[in-house]
């Protein structure tokens, strides 16, 4: 397994994987390019893919550099261990079903954290899918040092209403919870 920066060469595979794992209309080319832009600072890209020996994408992680992402109503900066200006954002991650359980998620997270630290971030926050199969998202993030800040109901419902997102569990009216979790880099 090789961890590589997420470049346009991998966009189609990443979009297909993201939509397979998270639901239809979760990712598109424009949105993915916006993620890469928010994740690039000082020429360093904090978004990665995991590829197998045939250069096939088995997983990916997108992350935003500190100071380059919008803090919205789903964020609780008063409970974060660092200032907003020092907080990176772990946007999205997906592992191909056949590759799950092989430690790819933690490898992608480790690569992202290394770059985010080089960019100047002191911590990273994520909204993890509480209803992921076996609650795997929260479990792996907790194992990586993540601490729960707050639970948010209906986190992805606006995406259903405004962008046509189809949740793999709820359909076109997602009521899944998001676990706002923080990993400190210090």
Within the largest sheet, what's the order of strands?
1-4-5-6-7-9-8
Shape: globular
Report the top-level CATH class.
Answer: Alpha Beta
Please report the distance between the alpha carbons of the first and last residues: 28 Å
Strand content: 25-35%
Largest sheet: 7 strands, mixed
Count of helical stretches: 5
Q: From N to C, what is the helix and strand string?
A: EHHEEEEEHEHEHE
CATH T-level fold name: Aminopeptidase
Arithmetic mean of pLDDT: 92
Radius of gyration: 15 Å
Note poorly predicted spans.
none
Number of domain modules: 1
Number of strands: 9
Q: Strand pairing plus helix content: what structural class?
A: alpha+beta
At CATH's second level, what is the architecture? 3-Layer(aba) Sandwich
User: Approximately how much helix is present in the residues?
Assistant: 25-40%
Looking at this structure, what is the CATH superfamily?
Gcn5-related N-acetyltransferase (GNAT)
What would you say this structure looks like, in words?
The protein is an alpha+beta fold and 186 residues long. The protein has a single domain, classed as Aminopeptidase (3-Layer(aba) Sandwich). 28% of the residues lie in helices and 26% in strands. It is built from 5 helices and 9 strands. The strands form 2 sheets. Strands 1-4-5-6-7-9-8 form a 7-stranded mixed beta sheet. Strands 2-3 form a two-stranded antiparallel ribbon. Helix 3 links the parallel strand 6 (87-95) and strand 7 (123-129). The protein is globular. It starts with a strand and ends with a strand. The mean pLDDT is 92.
């Amino acid at each position: 397994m090789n961890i590589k920066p997420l470049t346009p060469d991998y966009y189609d595979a990443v979009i297909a994987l993201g939509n397979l794992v998270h639901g239809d209309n979760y990712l598109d080319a424009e949105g993915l390019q916006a993620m890469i832009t928010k994740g690039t600072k000082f020429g360093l890209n904090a978004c990665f893919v995991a590829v197998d020996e045939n250069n096939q994408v088995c997983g990916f992680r997108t992350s935003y550099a500190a100071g380059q992402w919008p803090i919205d109503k789903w964020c609780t900066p008063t409970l974060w261990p660092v200032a907003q200006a020092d907080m990176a954002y772990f946007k999205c991650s997906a592992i191909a079903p056949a590759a799950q359980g092989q430690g790819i998620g933690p490898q992608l997270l480790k690569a992202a954290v290394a770059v985010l630290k080089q960019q100047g971030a002191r911590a990273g926050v994520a909204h993890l899918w509480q209803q992921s199969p076996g609650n795997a998202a929260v479990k792996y993030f907790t194992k990586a040092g993540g601490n729960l800040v707050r639970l948010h109901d209906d986190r992805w419902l606006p995406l259903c209403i405004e962008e046509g997102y189809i949740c793999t569990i709820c359909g076109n009216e997602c009521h899944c919870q998001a676990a706002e979790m923080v990993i400190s880099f210090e």
